[in-house]
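Suppose a classmate hands you a notebook page containing two proteins, each written out with its sequence and a corresponding row of C-alpha cells. How would you begin to make sense of it? This section walks through that situation. The first entry is reproduced here exactly as it would appear on such a page.
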Amino acid sequence: MRSLIDILELSTEEIGELIAVADDIRQNPAKYREACRGKKLATLFFEPSTRTRLSFEAAMYELGGNVLGFSEAQSSSASKGESVSDTVKVVSLYADIIAMRHPKEGAPLVASMKASVPVINAGDGGHNHPTQTLADLDTIWNEKGRLDNLTIGLCGDLKFGRTVHSLIAAMSRYENVKFILISPEELKLPSYVKRDILVKKGIPYEQTTDLEAAMPQLDILYMTRVQRERFFNEDDYVRLKDSYILTPAKLKNARQDLCIMHPLPRVNEISVAIDDDPRACYFKQALYGKYMRMALILKLLGVEV
C-alpha cells in the first residue's frame, strides 16, 4: 500500500506516467468511466476548500466510484476531540482511499502511518500540497511542452505558500530550470527551502521585489494570494495583501508565450481583465488538476485500465 504525502515521493518517471494517463483520460473519458466501480474515496477536509475537495470528488465520480467524507472539522468528531489517528483508523474501515486536508503540518503523514488504505495529502498547513503540484506540472507540460529549460517567476506569498514550496521541490529535478522569487521582504521564500533545495542542488535563482522588471525573462508566472489564514496579525495582512496585482499594463513586456498560473482561489492579485488573455492558464490549471487526481487515484489503488 502506498500513500502520497510529499511530491518528492514520486519519481520524475512516475510523474511522466501520471501525465500520460491524465492525457489519455482527457482524450478518452469513456474508457475510464467504470475504472473505480465499487471503490470509495473519503474526503477528510479539516480545513475549508472548494477546488481541491470538489476536484477529488469529481475525479472519483468520473472514474465510476463513490465519495463520502466531511468538508470542515466542525462537522466531524474532531470537534469532540477525536485524534487524527483514530479518525483515519475508522474511516479506513469504510473507504478504499483517503484524501485529507489539515491545517497542521504533518497531520496527513501521521494519518498515512495509521490508516490501512492509501492516504493522499490534499494540503497540510503551509507545508505541502502534492496534488496541486501535479496539476501545476501537467499545466506546464501541456502549455509549454516541456518541464525543463524554463525560467519560472513565483510571485506573492512565498513564505506561507505551500503550493510554491512543493512546485520548487518538484521542478528542481528537471534540467536547466531557473527561479525568480518575487515578493515583499516579509513574505520571502523561507531560508530552509532555499538552503535545502536551491542552494543544495545549485539551482539558479534571483530574489526581487520588482515584478515588472522580472517579467521579460519569464516562461511561467506563478501568482499566489497573500493568505489571510496564515497571518497572526491582521494589520500585517492588510498592509501586504495588495503587494502584487497583475494587470494588463504589467504584461506589456511579457513574452507572447508566457504561461500565467495561479493555484486559486484568487482574491484580487490577478485583474479579471487578464482572464481573456490567451496566456491566462489558471482555470485550465484547475481542470488539469482533476485529470491528474484521477490518474493518481488509479495509481494508488493499483487499477489498470
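The notebook's second entry, a different protein, reads as follows.
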Amino acid sequence: MRLKEGTTFEQVLTLYRFDKKLRILLFNEIEKIEVAIRSVLANIGCQELGDKYWITKAEYFANAEKFNQTLAVIEKELASSKEDYIEDFRRNYIESYPPAWMITEVLSFGNLNYIYSNIASNRLMKHIADYFSLKPQVFTSWLTVLANLRNMCCHHARIWNRDFMLNPAEPRKISNAWIETSRIDKKKLFYRLCIIRYFLVSVSPNNNFDFKLADLLSRFPSIDLTAMGFCQDWKNEPLWK
C-alpha cells in the first residue's frame, strides 16, 4: 500500500473515525425510510388489491420464478422468527401465511424491493411510488441504491469517498424539492445523501438529518467534501434548506 507523501497516522485515524460516525448516522436514517416503505408497501397493497395475504399469492406478481424465490425467503424467515406476533399467528390462525403487514416486518430491505419490482399491477406500483412522489422506475432504483448503502454501513465498508457501482435513476419531473444534478457525480456519496434526505422529507417533514449531517461535517473540518461528491453550495439547494 502506498500513502501520499506527508500522510500521518493521525490523518488516517481521523478518516477512519469520520467514516465510522458517518456509517452510523446513515444506517439510522435509512432505517426510518425502511420502516416507512414496509408500511406503505403492505398497506397500499392490501387496500388496492383487497387482499391482506397478497404478498404470498402468485397471481399478483409478474414473474413466477421471482415470486417463488421470494416465497422461499418468506418461508425461511417465518420459520426462524421468534417474534411474538408471528408465534401468536401460528397458535391462533389456520392460514398458511400471516397477512402482508406481518410478513414485511421479517423481510430485509432488499427483499421489499424484490417484491415491489415484481408486482404485476402497474396501477399498484404507481400508487406505492406516488406516496413518495416518484415514478416506479426511479423508486425501484433508489430502493436498490439505499439497500446497497445500508448493507455497506452494516458491514463496516468504507463509504465516505467511495465510487459506488450502482448508478441511480434520475427523476425527470419531480414535485418535491430536489437538487440540480448536472454538476453532481451520481456515483459519489453525496447523491445518496440527497436520496436519503428526499425520502426523509416525504416520511418525516420535520426530520433533522440536515442538521446532523452538517454537525458531523463541522466536527471533521479536514474531510475533503469534493471526494464525497458535494457541490460547493450544497446547503443552498432547496432539498437541504
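A careful reader of the second entry would note: The two ends are 41 Å apart (CA to CA).
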